[in-house]
Amino acid sequence: MYKQFIRPFLFLIDPESVHNKMISILSGNRFYFPLMKALYEPPGSDTITVAGMEFRNRLGLAAGFDKNGVVLQFLDTIGFSHAEVGTVTPKPQPGNSKPRIFRLKKDSAIINRLGFNNQGVEAVKRNIAGSKVKLSTDFIVGVNIGKNKQTEIANAVRDYKICFQELFEVADYFTINISSPNTEGLRKLQDREYLNELLETICSLNDKMSAGPLKPVFVKIAPDLSEPEIELIFETVIQNKINGIVATNTTISREGLMEEVNESGGLSGKPLFKKSSNVLKKLSELNSENIISLIGVGGVFDKESFNQKVESGASIVQIYTGLIYEGPGIIKKILT
Ligand SMILES: Cc1cc2nc3c(=O)[nH]c(=O)nc-3n(C[C@H](O)[C@H](O)[C@H](O)COP(=O)(O)O)c2cc1C
Questions:
Q1: 87 Cβ closer than 6 Å to some ligand 1 atom
Q2: Is 118 near ligand 1, meaning CB less than 6 Å away?
Q3: Distance 237 CA to ligand 1 centre (A)
């Protein structure tokens, strides 16, 4: 029904307006959620434990859809095991100028250059705290954190520290985003010297703040890294006892597109599948002793591509663009 009737209508409207409308229709607790649950909830699957957290299934929502943690009840209702809120920055910020989201229909893809538009840590903390009491006890809320646009790269660690501290109480896990192509200089944090300092700081903060077991922490990387760069990141992650890697964010490559586009930003969806899976496979090779967990993201649109991510080494898989193109029925299709 989504692809035949709803999507053609939605795709007539500018992508960001549709997104914002959807977010406002689906935020909070709505009377039609029980109906959505009946329609979309996947059958129970085997649970999987990753970094000490028990996920009710292997499929979650990737960062960027619910930037402010306002549609968590909806995401729980339609059957995801988890959602990654964010990217959240210390201060609220509007992001880049519009238009900044573009659909590439022929390629089943999206280009975005949003630039971390979000309400900032304080508001996001309130939003998550407010909805957490209404979520299923087994729904996991991750928070993806980043730096403000104005923050110099040399001071970036401070921004991640603020986000970690402020959101510690409400986050079940953290993802450190060092791979968005839409914040100038951010991907420099993937370089060894920056990354080591960043991870050391977050880990010692985690030690100080956790009374019991440490808060699980993941690092999200780009699909455009060379093999030696992936190896260095893997080593740095292991050294700092990070729980895992989210592979991957959007790509700056435009290889293999059918549509001609001249927009800057990160490309997601089907054309990203191979590139992100190659990074995942490389990480999986390096991780032959299963020291860390891998989260596979990029171009998952159906059961087959989901299974391929798992075969490539992902314990958990996340989607974003697939949800936009296939609708909420995608979760049941993948998990049944
Ligand atoms: C519109 C849009 C906004 C995004 N915003 C973020 C973000 O704020 N932080 C982040 O780590 N990833 C962000 N992403 C990347 C996704 O989380 C995901 O890594 C990427 O889209 C690949 O998955 P997909 O092909 O299933 O969409 C965004 C993606 C899209 C399409």
A1: yes
A2: no
A3: 22
Kindly state the average pLDDT of the residues 21-46.
89
Q: Number of C-alpha atoms within 13 angstroms, CB side, residue 321?
A: 26
For residue 3, the tally of other CB atoms under 10 A from its CB is: 11
211 CA → ligand 1 middle, Å: 32
Residue 14 belongs to a domain with what CATH number? 3.20.20.70
Q: Domain of residue 39: give its range.
A: 2-335
Q: Do 166 and 124 touch, CB atoms closer than 8 A? A: no
With a 6 A CB cut-off, is 181 part of the ligand 1 pocket?
no
CA of 62 to the centre of ligand 1 (A): 6
**205/146 Cα distance (integer angstroms):** 16
Q: What is the pLDDT of residues 49-94, one digit of tens each?
A: 999 999 999 999 999 999 999 999 999 999 999 999 999 999 999 9
Give the count of domains, the chain: 1
Q: How confident is the model at residue 181 (pLDDT cuts 50, 70, 90)?
A: confident
Are 179 and 221 spatial neighbours (Cβ–Cβ below 8 Å)?
yes
Q: Annotated catalytic, 180?
A: yes
- pLDDT tens per residue, range 192-239: 789 999 999 999 999 999 888 899 999 999 999 999 999 999 999 999
* Tokens read off for 242: 């990070």
Locate 42 and state its tokens.
């996947």
Containing 319, the helix (H) or strand (E) segment is strand 316-319
